[in-house]
Amino acid sequence: MALRKVVDYERSNSAKLRLAKPEVPVNLVEFTSESKLIEQSDQEEDFEELSFIGLDISQEEFELVKFSSCRFTNCRFESVDFSKTDFINCIFSNCDLSNCSLSDCYFSKTELNNMRLYGTDFSNSVFKDVLFQNSNLSYSNFSDAKTEYVAFKNSSFIGADLIGLKMKKTLFLDSDLTGANFFKTPLKGMDFTTCKIQGITVSENFSELKGMRILQEQSVDLARLLGIVYLEEI
What are the beta bridge partners of residue 68? Predict the structure, then answer.
């Protein structure tokens, strides 16, 4: 039986999270034809052990497609519909998927590095053993998604919708969550000590905040939600 390759991610004095690494062969078949990719996806063909380099595709549909053990490098997919697509054992590097629809997708043992995911829709998607790193996810949508063994590292979630997000074994490390919407997303046990949390949105009874872990100086940001004003001593 093959050993499960894992990688550890530490966060400030907390337990390690062990993510299974993508299993991608070193030697992949290079795939550089946009037209061929569109044609094969129209036929709902699966893509396996391929390296996609420098593709530039806009406003196409790739629904119900499966990518297995693939690499995506320096690709640009603008406003592309990837709904209900599976990404298993994939690695994305320096790609732009801004304003794409990745709703109802399944991500497993996948890494996304140095990505532009501005306004990308991940709603209702499932993430297992996934790493987002050094990426811009501002104004992205993770509403009603599910994450398990997922790390968001050094990434921006400014203005992101994280409504009804169900998180298990999930870490936010050195990330900017300014103005993120956590409505109906329980944050109990979540550690935000290395993150920016100014202006986050929760429900009127603030129930989402119960049990979340922050630094003392970050309490000022949450106090504003409660209408509390700190005064300096005279």
Answer: 48, 88
Boundaries of every domain in the chain: 20-104, 117-228
Residues 79-111 have pLDDT tens digits of: 999 999 999 999 999 999 999 999 999 999 999
Q: Which CATH class is domain 117-228?
A: mainly beta
Q: How many CA atoms lie within 13 A of 203 on its CB side?
A: 13
The Cα 120–Cα 102 span in angstroms is 7
CATH topology of domain 20-104: Pectate Lyase C-like (2.160.20)
pLDDT digits (tens, 9 = 90+) for 157-173: 999 999 999 999 999 99
Helices (H), 120-218: none
**Do 31 and 49 meet the contact criterion of CB atoms below 8 Å apart?**
no
Cα distance between residue 15 and residue 185, in whole Å:
22
For 50-64, what is each residue's pLDDT tens digit?
A: 999 999 999 898 888
The answer to whether 169 and 191 are in contact (CB under 8 A) is no
